[in-house]
Amino acid sequence: MQKLTNKEEEIMHILWRLQKAFVKDVLFEIKEDKPHYNTLSTIIRNLEDKGYVGHNAYGKTHQYYPLVEKEAYKKRFMNTAIENYFNSSYKNVVSFFAKEEKISADELREIIALIEKKQ
Predict the structure, then answer these.
(1) Rg of the chain (C-alpha set)
(2) What is the pLDDT of residues 29-61, one digit of tens each?
């Protein structure tokens, strides 16, 4: 699975949400930094070349759909981020969020309960 640019990832989130979309549908969903129609079309074709997107042809028009499931991408993205930024340590991930005050003690207790249930 090739790494996606920020704009490609944004477009994939739109396609995951819509399931099937024409370029104009994707363009409508982009709220900030809207690319030109032709630029967006090129980005979507690049996603297709990378294996993330497929299409159905209707004459000269294409309707695009995701080939990679969001969960599969999320798992790959998270594993790579944890390897690269946290030395493959989930403890370091949780410590980071605790230090940044992004996770509460109650949430940590919920996580511990989930872990203990599985054992």
Answers:
(1) 19
(2) 999 899 999 999 999 999 999 999 999 999 999
